[in-house]
Each structure stands twice: as C-alpha cells, then as structure tokens.
Design brief:
alpha/beta; Rossmann fold; 2 domains; five-stranded parallel beta sheet; 9 helices
C-alpha cells in the first residue's frame, strides 16, 4: 500500500457492546502507521496519582476509596458508586471531560510530531460525548444482536438479561448509522472484517 502524504487523519470508532471494536483496532494498530486511544484505558490513566481527575475524585468519594499506595482502588470506587446514580453522574462529570482533554492533547502532540498518519479514538459514548467535532470521520462497528449476545455470554460470562440491560442503555443501530460516516460489518469472520478495513484504508502505509 502506498503512503498517504496528507496530514494526520483522525478517526473515531464506536459501536455497541460486543460489536468487536477491540479486535478491529488491534488489527489496525498492528498493520498501519497509527496510534490508538481507547477511552476506557484513558479513563484509568486520568485517575492515577498526579493526573487531572485524581484529586477531584478523592475529594468527591473520600479517602476510603484509596489503596495503601495512595492510588484509587478500582473495586472500592465501584462499590461506592454502584447503587448511587447521583454519585455516578458526578464521577462521570469529572472523568469524561478529563479523558477528552487528554485525547485532545494527544492529538496536538501527534500533529506536532508528524510521526503517524492515522489516529484512532474508540469509545462506546463517542457520539454522546461530542467527539464528532474532534474527528475527521466516524466509524461504526456493527454486529447483529445475536452475534453480540453470543460473544458477551461466551467471553464475559454475561447472562442474556445483563446483555439486554446494557444494550438498552446504548444508542440504537439507527442512531449509530445516522451519525457515522463508515460502517464495518463485524458479524462474521474476522478475515471479512479485515478486508473491509484494508479497502477503506488503502493508500495509507501498510506495516509488514
């Protein structure tokens, strides 16, 4: 594949739970001159000691959520906000903006360094969190409900009730398609998914 000499191209990747966003991005990260930011991973980073969300979260939740080393204990934090919707929303109001600022800074750094061609941002709430204004285009990773349910039951041990409960809280397929510029059907074999990716990214550097 030929190298694309254009400036950094930013792509947002979204889709419902179980659609296979991680598999898609793992393939892209391996084969293209790019960088990938997963919102869930960034959310953990911004909670670390010294990072933007750390002190506000400790102030909100109390020192009882801290581990012995002073870091925020994931399990204790989850237990505290599990049944408190108001507290959960307050946590999200701290974490989500911090994640977005982290990613915006990463984009500016990538533009300055000019060492990659593609930058991918993945989040289930990409549309709701306003990343449409940040990316050059938005991809929707689609898989039919039956396939997604089977994956989640097999890989995460979820019950059908839990899967349905999570899906009910996410955007509908129609909403995803309405906002996205490109759709990858990841309902079948991964080789078919990879072929769709390669066709879309033809022209960007292929890493052997």
């Amino acid at each position: 594949m030929k190298q694309n000499k254009q400036s950094l191209h930013i792509i947002g990747v979204t889709g419902g739970i179980g659609a296979g966003k991680s598999e898609v991005l793992a393939y892209i990260e391996k084969h293209y001159n790019c960088r990938v930011y997963l919102a869930d991973q960034v959310a953990h980073l911004v909670k670390e000691v010294g990072q933007e969300a750390y002190l506000p979260l400790v102030k909100l939740l109390g020192e009882e959520v801290l581990c012995e080393d002073g870091s925020i204990c994931k399990n204790q934090m989850a237990e505290k906000i599990f049944s408190d919707q108001t507290l959960l929303e307050q946590v999200n109001q701290i974490v989500h903006p911090a994640v977005k600022r982290f990613i915006l800074n990463a984009i500016e750094e990538a533009k300055a360094k000019q060492d990659i061609e593609l930058l991918f941002i993945e989040a289930a709430l990409l549309i709701e969190a306003g990343y449409i204004d940040v990316v050059d285009e938005l991809w929707y990773i689609f898989a039919d409900i039956e396939t997604r349910t089977a994956r989640l039951m097999a890989n995460r041990g979820y019950s059908t009730q839990k899967v349905q409960s999570i899906m009910d809280k996410q955007l509908s397929e129609e909403a995803f398609r309405k906002h996205c510029d490109f759709v990858i059907d990841n309902s079948g074999e991964l080789t078919t998914t990879y072929a769709q990716i390669d066709k879309k990214l033809e022209g960007y550097t292929w890493l052997e």
